[in-house]
Amino acid sequence: DIAQLDLGRATRRGYPEAIFCQGKTVDQVARIATVLVGQPQVALFTRVREEQVTALLEVLPDAAYDAEARLVAWPPVPPEPTGGPVLVLAAGTSDLPVAREALLTTRYLGRQADLVVDVGVAGLHRILAQVPRLRTAKAIVVAAGMDGALPSVVAGLVAAPVIAVPTSVGYGAAFEGLAALLTMLNACAPGVAVVNIDNGYGAGHLAAQIAAP
Amino acid sequence: DIAQLDLGRATRRGYPEAIFCQGKTVDQVARIATVLVGQPQVALFTRVREEQVTALLEVLPDAAYDAEARLVAWPPVPPEPTGGPVLVLAAGTSDLPVAREALLTTRYLGRQADLVVDVGVAGLHRILAQVPRLRTAKAIVVAAGMDGALPSVVAGLVAAPVIAVPTSVGYGAAFEGLAALLTMLNACAPGVAVVNIDNGYGAGHLAAQIAAP
Amino acid sequence: DIAQLDLGRATRRGYPEAIFCQGKTVDQVARIATVLVGQPQVALFTRVREEQVTALLEVLPDAAYDAEARLVAWPPVPPEPTGGPVLVLAAGTSDLPVAREALLTTRYLGRQADLVVDVGVAGLHRILAQVPRLRTAKAIVVAAGMDGALPSVVAGLVAAPVIAVPTSVGYGAAFEGLAALLTMLNACAPGVAVVNIDNGYGAGHLAAQIAAP
Amino acid sequence: DIAQLDLGRATRRGYPEAIFCQGKTVDQVARIATVLVGQPQVALFTRVREEQVTALLEVLPDAAYDAEARLVAWPPVPPEPTGGPVLVLAAGTSDLPVAREALLTTRYLGRQADLVVDVGVAGLHRILAQVPRLRTAKAIVVAAGMDGALPSVVAGLVAAPVIAVPTSVGYGAAFEGLAALLTMLNACAPGVAVVNIDNGYGAGHLAAQIAAP
Amino acid sequence: DIAQLDLGRATRRGYPEAIFCQGKTVDQVARIATVLVGQPQVALFTRVREEQVTALLEVLPDAAYDAEARLVAWPPVPPEPTGGPVLVLAAGTSDLPVAREALLTTRYLGRQADLVVDVGVAGLHRILAQVPRLRTAKAIVVAAGMDGALPSVVAGLVAAPVIAVPTSVGYGAAFEGLAALLTMLNACAPGVAVVNIDNGYGAGHLAAQIAAP
Amino acid sequence: DIAQLDLGRATRRGYPEAIFCQGKTVDQVARIATVLVGQPQVALFTRVREEQVTALLEVLPDAAYDAEARLVAWPPVPPEPTGGPVLVLAAGTSDLPVAREALLTTRYLGRQADLVVDVGVAGLHRILAQVPRLRTAKAIVVAAGMDGALPSVVAGLVAAPVIAVPTSVGYGAAFEGLAALLTMLNACAPGVAVVNIDNGYGAGHLAAQIAAP
Amino acid sequence: DIAQLDLGRATRRGYPEAIFCQGKTVDQVARIATVLVGQPQVALFTRVREEQVTALLEVLPDAAYDAEARLVAWPPVPPEPTGGPVLVLAAGTSDLPVAREALLTTRYLGRQADLVVDVGVAGLHRILAQVPRLRTAKAIVVAAGMDGALPSVVAGLVAAPVIAVPTSVGYGAAFEGLAALLTMLNACAPGVAVVNIDNGYGAGHLAAQIAAP
Amino acid sequence: DIAQLDLGRATRRGYPEAIFCQGKTVDQVARIATVLVGQPQVALFTRVREEQVTALLEVLPDAAYDAEARLVAWPPVPPEPTGGPVLVLAAGTSDLPVAREALLTTRYLGRQADLVVDVGVAGLHRILAQVPRLRTAKAIVVAAGMDGALPSVVAGLVAAPVIAVPTSVGYGAAFEGLAALLTMLNACAPGVAVVNIDNGYGAGHLAAQIAAP
Ligand SMILES: Nc1ncnc2c1ncn2[C@@H]1O[C@H](COP(=O)(O)O)[C@@H](O)[C@H]1O
Ligand SMILES: Nc1ncnc2c1ncn2[C@@H]1O[C@H](COP(=O)(O)O)[C@@H](O)[C@H]1O
Ligand SMILES: Nc1ncnc2c1ncn2[C@@H]1O[C@H](COP(=O)(O)O)[C@@H](O)[C@H]1O
Ligand SMILES: Nc1ncnc2c1ncn2[C@@H]1O[C@H](COP(=O)(O)O)[C@@H](O)[C@H]1O
Ligand SMILES: [Mg+2]
Ligand SMILES: [Mg+2]
Ligand SMILES: [Mg+2]
Ligand SMILES: [Mg+2]
Ligand SMILES: [Mg+2]
Ligand SMILES: [Mg+2]
Ligand SMILES: [Mg+2]
Ligand SMILES: [Mg+2]
Questions:
Q1: Which chain C residue's Cα is nearest to B171?
Q2: pLDDT band at residue B173 using 50, 70 and 90 as cut-offs
Q3: d(Cα G117, Cα H64) in Å, to the nearest integer?
Q4: PurE domain location, by residue (chains A, B, C, D, E, F, G, H) (predicted)?
């Protein structure tokens, strides 16, 4: 009566439903977890609050919890990876929570994925040093706040699609990530796919799809 | 002196530079075309105006021009397609110019691509009738204006990534495509990659990358 | 001196005034309740805070309080329903508070009303399974956040008016419900009437009017 | 290939599809009209341009054209009205095009409808003089630009739902109808259903649904 | 070193400087009060926080504090009124804090002023009952949130200027008072002067100037 | 049938109705003029287009037309002024159309009014040279675009109310007058009353009311 | 009477007044030119329209006109340069009009200035090839539209201040230069000074000030 | 792994990297400080929270902390100043935190800098009294909230560039500093360079660059 889980999603489209925990009560999240217990598919709980985690771990005691990514996953070990490699970039240290949410989502949806941190365009040598590695990826996620300029630079250097995640890092005219979002939508290099502000989950999901076998 | 064409782009990242003709003079476009004449790579001129087309056809007499997509391509015949199939959907008849820009871009960048028109969610049976076909595509482009609701529906039905292009079709609170853009960024189904309003070129480019061999 | 209750509203237009409790002090709400004690009409207190509820229950001890809908109603039992049936849909679990505010408002204003939860467009089979039931309603309220796409889909399936309530569920470019609001204003199906973000009260009131005998 | 008309709409939901002509070429509109020729249902072409009208009248020679409402309807005579009466109000003379689009839509969808012009709140006696007439309507459409204040006032006086259409009348901070739109969404009187800026078609459609037998 | 009080303001333009306390530390406010102690002019401290009040009352023990208006005034008794009468209207109970800030400012700047509460347009008889009284005022302040429709109605009824103060009362598309602000800037009746959202001080100051002898 | 002129407005509130000509057809304006012919009161037609002027001068041959202010007035000679003097300032030459609309409105509504041009804050000596003259006015209208800074400076120098009219002069982040509008709403000096962007009529009307005898 | 030229500006602050021609009539511009004829200082007319140029060249026959920059300058030859060198970068060919306005302004205000075109970040090797030259400049102007990412990259490479001019090049979510403006205000590299969208004049003026002797 | 400090920045472009502490954990900031311990360059930690300061002082015990500016600097004593003098103006007392962040940044980056407080345009004599001093500066930083009008006035009086920092001081239509930002971008005086809202760090950095020897 409070939810109709879309349990057929994995069969229908290859990737299971994730539970968006922001805006749900502790009790609602726990009841949803109970339904998922008996299911074969991976369960991801995104944007979890501390008190929801406690309740989830009572229902799914061996679930994995990543505090920085605010993600609970069950079963705790990601599946054996298939498909091509994914690379996740964080422009600055402050973009790490979003980047990690993407990283873990990609892994739990079945891809091999790595993370590179603090390669913003203010010190260009840092991203240039990564070019060979960038060219090995089948999909690249770039999380960036403030000016959101990194995806334009990366997309100009590689053949793989760049999934750009604007983050709410910044202040003033960053407008909670709006500035970075607009930058990315207007990337002067083609090959930039944009998702919602702070949507590490969505970026990781897209990366898993693009790098699928 | 007026341009430094990025001629190494095809080598560096697999897809050639396209010329954004809006905001350029007829003379500038013609001079750029002259430089491209001797090049081996595909040349795409996007958002061309009628008077630019005339000038382009003087420099590249056998170039292909699609008036609805506002696109000039040279050489006129797309390369033999490789990779997987791409499907382009137009939610309504008015979304055709953007959808065709995506369709042709995908083809000139080397993929096989088809178009399906007028399958908006107001008459849901139309998109439901396409489900088997949707599931054969490696990437799906969805152009939609007004409420921009079609990508959410499609992404819930397929495993392939959906590239959502908001169009400026509509009036009033459509705010020239902003409403559709926000809808797509907030798609309740994961797997939706968003590009700029009316950016059929960018959508087609991403589709070609995702469906690459 | 702090309020001039519009006590003639029920006589003048058939539905009593509701007290908007957000932005009022506990003391003000209690004083208003005191005036209403002697009145024959239904009293609804919307958007109540916990400390206001305590004060209200001192003045109106048998009032009904619904914590999820943040609504206090007196007398506690809704009137015997007249007119046609109303259906309230919540696109996701997180839309429940707004959906319940609509549901209860409709009932206290004299209509029979039911609730269906978690039928968002990401799993289309859920709403398709409800089509026969949707077609029995005289008015349908749809509460949806994020992309706000559900009302367009529902309005394309039924003859009754759809009252769309955007909710503030979501984050980033959801802009506290603005994205869903714009989607609904631009619904590609006609027959969608929009109310303010999170305005379950207003939606329920309209449903009661439309389904009136 | 350019359109898949939703011809089942009248059967499925009681009201036929309308053709949104803005953003369509003359040729596209004409081809759509050709398909509709053999159909039993009412055909409405909204937001038509002069050159589209010429083409339409070649295909449907006896179609009715209202220049102010920018509407073409066929067959030219509305059906015999059923259901309750509808009243359309225009706050000022400049709101007439939108008000007439609502008026004619309502009539072609089968209701009896009347129009009252220039009853804005700056001269309150004008709307007060209409109160008895307002109370006879089953649904009231109010078209207003600038401050958009008229729906709040009307909704406070009647039991029937008020369908508020913000118009783009005004300048400066009217922001092409945004000011009026926000006013209406925040109406301090309940019972106000809002549609898109300048959407007389949508308002008239909702009025026809609400006043249906 | 932290402030250069504009002590000549009363001489130069007839009304003394007021101290805007939001964004100042307790210590800064206290030091400013100390400078004002020896001055002949009225001192107004606006938007005070509780802890600032405590500090102010140590420096100016007999100052008057109005908690609802968040205003501290010294000397505590307003001057003997001159000029014409001012009327302050609050559309709803929730607009009282802003309305009282205007009321008290007007009085401390030397005018006679009265307050009328809860006369919003949803129950039009309430403002109509005040018309004779409205016509006696030299300036009328109207504080209103949500749709902000009251100033348009009042300005259509009287010869005196109406000073409209949008309040942040409301939610959702009220956008913290933006909706009411736009309504008032687009008032369909002339004679409406607008000040910033929640700026009761500015409204009261203007009323005092307009009603000056 | 196209208008219900509020002919009682002069009696009811001291100032006659003005006809807003933008958004009206030539025929509608002419018909309204015909009704006004027999009336004793001043008639102002604002925001007139050239073709409307031609039609108006046929109905009211001796009407006065000011092309810069886009204003037609009848009878052509303003009434003998009463009340106090009004001063209208244009920050730059480009603000002249709006400033003149205010100037003429004030004169036709019965006040004595003068104009001072090009006294923007970039060359501060120009406004400082006007201080004695500024202090003789009962109301000051300030029209300014771009940064809209002049009203803040003027209000800090005088006792009379300043009516600030933002103009759409500027480009880019001037956002058609929005920047100037926000500046004026946030004037750091009290005593600034704001009207809509480019609303010279409204500013002149307020000035006439404030400077009334 | 239509203008009070700020002729003392060159003396007072070292740089003469420029005439903003947008929004002025041909006649007004000509009259202003007449006043400037006898003056010793440089006169710049910005944002001129073709018909204004004709009138200007009648008053100042040997004035220099640059059609791309929409600038008229008199005397036609810039002064002998003093101070340090300035470099102006245009990210793309479409940014040339704004870049040239900056270039010429800097030269007419007395600095040596050069232009480099089409060095956007999509082909990073182009800007990297300029690093030695970038490091010789005392001030660098960067004109960029779409994502506006170039200033962040340049500022990370040099010690001199970067003056960033967002241009209105782009479409859709570029929002006429707003996207680029926000990018630049949020540059992740310090040392970026921002001016208004398309404000080549202001950028050139700042460059001249910064590179002054 | 959490950061790649851009330690070459001082060598490459003359000014060291600053650590943006907002959005970083206490642990992350401490680890970054540890890396900086052995470095020769100045380290600035901006927007520090109290708990970050405690951790920083454990790693760098003699670092200087300014609570108002929310800045930690190490080594604690700024370098001996070179280049020209910088002047920092705060329009009001509430702008002090931003002004001090600029002041200290400028000093730690090697310039001599002074602060002048509370010289807003509402009391114009205060800034006029500073004109001789203003004219001695090589660069002037102006921090202002609300209307943000001070930079326009200052830039009209001096030859040096004005760096304008909008602050989030104000309420309502100040929109957290947006109003002041737009004012400054549209300054009617040239010579105004704008940085992000509340970005005292960026303003101070630019001032140091402009006043460099
Ligand atoms: N962090 C997230 N961001 C965006 N979408 C999400 C997120 N987590 C889950 N979702 C999607 O949101 C949809 C609605 O969630 P729910 O409210 O749980 O029904 C689910 O079907 C998910 O696919
Ligand atoms: N939750 C709500 N949302 C929108 N309007 C409401 C709500 N609750 C009450 N109202 C209306 O708001 C008006 C103003 O309320 P009040 O401030 O109590 O005078 C009332 O007349 C109600 O009709
Ligand atoms: N003037 C109008 N405003 C809003 N919606 C409309 C209008 N005219 C037609 N429509 C709807 O827009 C939908 C999409 O139109 P089309 O592009 O013709 O497929 C149609 O199914 C109509 O229901
Ligand atoms: N308060 C500040 N405002 C704007 N930019 C800053 C601030 N503090 C540091 N920065 C810059 O922000 C960049 C990114 O910071 P980080 O996230 O620490 O890598 C740094 O390279 C700094 O140059
Ligand atoms: Mg970093
Ligand atoms: Mg269609
Ligand atoms: Mg769900
Ligand atoms: Mg009228
Ligand atoms: Mg009330
Ligand atoms: Mg001037
Ligand atoms: Mg280029
Ligand atoms: Mg002060």
A1: C186
A2: very high
A3: 45
A4: 84-213
What distance in Å separates the CA atoms of residue E114 and residue E99, rounded to the nearest whole number? Answer: 10
Q: How do strand H43-46 and strand H71-74 relate by DSSP bridges?
A: antiparallel
Give the rounded distance of the alpha carbon of H94 from its chain centre.
Answer: 15
What's the CA-to-centroid distance between E79 and ligand 7, angstroms?
Answer: 63
Q: In this structure, what is the dihedral angle of CA atoms G158, G163, G168, G169, given to the nearest 10 degrees?
A: -30
Other beta carbons within 10 Å of F84: 17
Residue E199 pLDDT grade (very low, low, confident, very high; cuts 50, 70, 90): very high
Q: Cα separation of B94 and G118, whole Å? A: 34
Best of D118, D146, D147 to substitute, by most chain E Cβ atoms within 10 angstroms, is D147
Cα–Cα dist C42/C76, whole Å:
9
Instruction: Pick D24's closest partner by Cβ from B94, B123, B174.
Output: B94
Q: In what order do the strands lie in the sheet with F64-66?
A: F18-20, F43-46, F71-74, F64-66
pLDDT at C72 over 90: yes
Does ligand 4 lie within 6 Å of residue G61's CB atom? Answer: no
**Which is the closest atom of ligand 1 to the Cα of C91?**
19
CB G170 within 8 A of CB G72: no
- DSSP state, residue F7: T
Which residue, judged by its Cα, is nearest atom 8 of ligand 3? D20
Sign of CA pseudo-dihedral F130, F132, F136, F138: positive
Q: What is the pLDDT along chain D (213 residues), one digit of tens a residue?
A: 899 999 899 999 999 989 999 999 999 999 999 998 888 889 999 999 999 999 999 999 999 999 999 999 999 999 999 999 999 999 999 999 999 999 999 999 999 999 999 999 999 999 999 999 999 999 999 999 999 999 999 999 999 999 999 999 999 999 999 999 999 999 999 999 999 999 999 999 999 999 999
Q: Is H161 on the interface with G (CB under 8 A)?
A: yes
Give the mutation target among H7, H12, H19, H20 for probing the ligand 4 site: most ligand atoms within 8 A of CB. Answer: H20
- Pairing mode, strands D43-46 and D71-74: antiparallel
- Banded pLDDT at C41 (limits 50, 70, 90): confident
Strands (DSSP E) found in B48-161: 64-66, 71-74, 86-90, 113-117, 139-144
C188 contacts on B by Cβ (under 8 Å): 91-92, 120-122, 146-147, 149
Q: Specify the residue for token string 């011809």.
A: D7
Q: Return mean pLDDT, chain A.
A: 97
Could you tell me the CA-to-CA distances from B128 to B134, B157, C156 in Å, in that order? Answer: 10, 9, 14
Q: What is the mean pLDDT of residues B43-72?
A: 97
By most ligand atoms within 8 Å of CB, the mutation choice from D5, D6, D19 for ligand 3 is D19
Which tokens in the block code for residue A115?
């993370």
G81 touches chain F (CB under 8 A): no
ipTM entry? 0.97
pLDDT (tens digit, 9 = 90+) per residue, F131-162? 999 999 999 999 999 999 999 999 999 999 99
Q: Whole-number mean pLDDT of chain H?
A: 97
Number of alpha helices (DSSP H) and beta strands (DSSP E) in chain F? 9, 9
Cross-chain Cβ contact D186/E121 below 8 Å: no
